[in-house]
Amino acid sequence: MTPDAPEHAFPAGAAHEIVQRGLSYDELEVGARYLHRPGRTATEADNVLFSSITMNTQALHLDAAFSESQPFGRRLMNSMWTLSTMVGASVSQITQGTLVAQLGMTDVSFPAPLFHGDTLYTETEVLGKRLSASRPGQGIVTLRHTGRNQRGEVVALATRTALMWGASETPEETS
Fold it and tell me: 129: left (phi > 0), else alpha (psi -120 to 50), else beta?
C-alpha cells in the first residue's frame, strides 16, 4: 500500500500489488523495438496550449489565416510538442522509475509535418548500451525514437542517451 493512499483503496486480501515501472539497464536488449500504444491524436488545443506555455509565437502554429497562405496550407503542430509527446509515450514502458538522468538528444528531425487531427504513434529501438565507468550500478543506453502518423509516415526522429539504473539498483516505488 502506498503511504498516501487511503486504506479502503485496496481490496482486503489482495494477492499482491504491481507497480508500473520501466525497464532497467539489464532488461533492455540492443535491437529490441518497443511499440508504444495507444497513439496520441494531436488537437488544436494541444498545439495552441503547448505553443503558448512555451512562448512560441510562431504563426504557423497559431494563425490559421496566415498558415493557409503558406506551403502546407494549414497550421502545423508545434514540432517540440511532437518531440515531447514522442519521448513521453516511451516513459511508462522504458524509463518510468528506472531513469537516473537524460544525458542528451541528437539527430532530431521532422521529415513530414504533423497536423491537428493526425495521430502520433511512437516506437523506440535500443541502439546500444554500456555500463557506466564512473557510476557503479548504472548504465548508458542509446534509444532511437520514431514518430509516425496514422498513415505510417515518419513525422519525427530523435536519438536519446539516458543514464539508467541496473536491475539490482533500481529504487523501489515509494508513492
Answer: beta
The rounded percent of the chain whose pLDDT value lies above 90 is 83
Which CATH number describes the domain made up of 23-43+88-169? 3.10.129.10
- d(CA 101, CA 162) in angstroms, rounded, equals 6
pTM to 2 decimals?
A: 0.84
- Best CA proximity match to 102, nearest among 157, 25, 144, 163: 163
The answer to whether residue 10 scores a pLDDT higher than 90 is: no
Q: Report how far residue 75's alpha carbon sits from residue 92's, in angstroms, rounded to the nearest whole number.
A: 30
Are the C-beta atoms of residues 118 and 149 closer than 8 Å to each other? Answer: yes
d(CA 22, CA 116): 30
